[in-house]
TrEMBL record:
Stretches assigned to coiled coil: none
Organism of derivation: Streptomyces spiramenti
Alphabetized InterPro entries for the sequence: Rv2466c-like, Thioredoxin-like_sf
Superkingdom: Bacteria
Name of the featured protein: DsbA family protein
Lineage: Bacteria, Bacillati, Actinomycetota, Actinomycetes, Kitasatosporales
Gene3D superfamilies in alphabetical order: Glutaredoxin
Amino acid sequence: MSERTTPVTADFWFDPMCPWAWMTSRWMLEVEKVRPVKVRWNVMSLSILNEDREELSEKYRTLMADGWGPVRVAVAVDRAHGQEALARYYTAIGTRIHPGGEKDFAKAVTGALADAGLPAELAGAADSQEHDEALRASHNAGIDLVGQDVGTPVIAVPGPDGDRVAFFGPVVTPAPRGEAAARLWDGTLLVAATPGFYELKRTRTEGPRFD
């Protein structure tokens, strides 16, 4: 076990439609059980990240257009009801979209709000630009830390001088549990504390496993 006892805040940026962010978020929830860590949930948007990219396929463009709804509602939930509600909403909509296989994001939003015990009228944010300024601010806060050539998830943890160090990932499947989750977290803090460390990567050979 790690000897670290000082609580650590880990900032986590997610887009509800990203299966890899979903996997990493389930790992982070496990880390909260086995290490003195508190996750602070932040919204980023693959729709924003890709809005000026002309090389996207028509299928992916359609996905990005549909992706505005879930993140807009996430921001609305956070602004109206706070972090705990945002975490409940993310768990609810992620469960519907990923293990549940729901392809209709509007239906997923409506169901997730009900599952999370949140007001149904929040679903109206999906088709409104009311929270777009806050959404872009949250998105940019994560991207400014990690750089433009990544997607979601993004996590930020304390570095050696106390400033946040952000990484894309970790990308992992299935989500580690118990001591395996703790070891991966310890390793994340280790590389974050190494000046000049930027990247570890290998080719993915399997898709997300929602065990």
